[in-house]
Amino acid sequence: NAGVTQTPKFQVLKTGQSMTLQCAQDMNHNSMYWYRQDPGMGLRLIYYSASEGTTDKGEVPNGYNVSRLNKREFSLRLESAAPSQTSVYFCASTPNNDRRQYFGAGTRLSVL
Amino acid sequence: GNSVTQMEGPVTLSEEAFLTINCTYTATGYPSLFWYVQYPGEGLQLLLKATKADDKGSNKGFEATYRKETTSFHLEKGSVQVSDSAVYFCALSPRPSGSARQLTFGSGTQLTVLP
Predict the structure, then answer these.
(1) Which residues fall within 8 angstroms of residue A88, CB to CB, at 6 or more apart?
(2) Of A9, A21, A55, A102, which has fewest CB within 10 angstroms of its CB?
């Protein structure tokens, strides 16, 4: 089983460039999440989607947009990357009947 | 709001030593509690969970007991191995949580086990 798949695994951007981080899950989960992980700060929620067609802001949404394209896919877009967005980004999903979240392997993003 | 406080690391132990990583939480109602583990270069994996007071979660020799009176969920293992070296995150999911079941994470504790 693939579980939660994130692409790319690594990315280097220049300040002001844009990019989209892709996430797909094959477990038929309703809810999906985007987190960023920074040293000493744990994981902070950027955006989440409780179901297909809905998205909501998390703790740190500024500078990001998301799209829940369908039940499987939830993408995160940086329109104009800033050095403060250098981080490791994780996508996760959870089924309706559980609180456990399943995580992808992460995307390491550096903004120069 | 909800919050999770973990003991600061890094923690360095010798193989076969006893491990405790402290975790306390603040939440309204009766949250579910989790420990996740992150091995180098990987995403987070669920290690164990507990959904109500006095529940004990256990997996791979790790245990944690949901203590509502002290709002704690400390992680313990009697004899650690080198392969346990990882970052450990305590997390909570509040109830009622609405449809999104968001998790609030602690800052993580880096564990290194030396042979």
Answers:
(1) A36, A37, A38, A106, A107, A108, A109
(2) A9
